[in-house]
């Protein structure tokens, strides 16, 4: 019997296979981490705040009022940061509040006097803080009046419906038993109309407030002869009955020391005006509005000290927003302190995406080398099953033809192994596998040599014994081949690793 040498095969560049990369292994290794990262990005995008809008609408008050003047300053400050502020005139605080509550009005923020809101109107609104006092000024003609109850039966101008002076005037008069529909005439006059009516004697008193009356009009009445400024002798009592009011004392001569205006100390009552916004206001715009409020309302006046406003202390039932509370406690965030507004806004939103990626991917990437190594080793170890099958088949009695079949299968295994792409880090295990393939080949060939030597020693004449041996091989070839465990040829995916 002739020993069978390994069949001729096309040479493989094994070294190049070590440099090549298996994209399938990379995909299977990095795939889970990429899927987790993609899921984290998707979740972050769903939760991320959109970019701040470039347009805001503010409902202020009548043109020329203190609230209107403040709104114009807001407009100039926000324009420096690329925000266009549209200022809408209104009758006063009550109308401002109604605009905020009506989505069709598209009003984002407004000046609202504390005390005008009704129960249940604060669900969709938040406060950005108090920004100033708006004291009520009651100017009257005739003899000195010490209590509000003395206005019963007189003609009173409370301002139009929707103004803060109208709402506060009704609340104060109600405590004194004066209600609409009685003997007292409550007229919807305000501003210049109320001033002219008072000077002409068509009304007896005017309830005026800075949210609905121009400053020059009030100054004109202060100086008019025969017109008195009502002083609340019971100011503390009213402040306790109506918790949104503050007792404010105007010292003698505070308006004009030269003419000693007013000529005595005056006690008046003042609600605070608050910056009220929809609860959907972007956090970055909340910070900008409070910054503008500090610039506009933070200086000292005859009514307040420097830095007293804006203040997180509110007197309405509308809650302070979480963003405003954070700003009053800690100020601007680091990004908005160090970067321009729009750059900080962009970086802030990007961090919402980057942070989940870092949190998810860094732990995930730690498992990528382990998974990749497992993938590479599994491609090596799967061939040991084939080698064990071949070696066990060689342990029994085999005919020369069966041995040829096993050697062909071993050649197929070796071909497939040589075509594998293998990282250099696993070259040692690759060469161990090739050594084991050689070991199985030697077992098959050594068994062939041993059987050949034994056959030669037992036959006296090879020439005469040859025909008989050939007939024995032919008669056993079929059954022996069937006894060999089936083993598939080299699997196709080994070529597809690329």
TrEMBL record:
Sorted alphabetically, the keyword list is: Membrane, Transmembrane, Transmembrane helix
**Entry keyword annotation includes Lipoprotein:** no
Q: Which Pfam families match?
A: NMT1_3
Q: Which domain of life is it from?
A: Bacteria
Region span, Disordered:
450-498
> What are the transmembrane regions?
21-45, 350-372
Q: Extract the PANTHER family matched here.
A: SLL1037 PROTEIN
Q: What is this protein called?
A: C4-dicarboxylate ABC transporter substrate-binding protein
Please give the organism. Answer: Burkholderia gladioli (Pseudomonas marginata)
The top of its lineage is: Bacteria, Pseudomonadati, Pseudomonadota, Betaproteobacteria, Burkholderiales
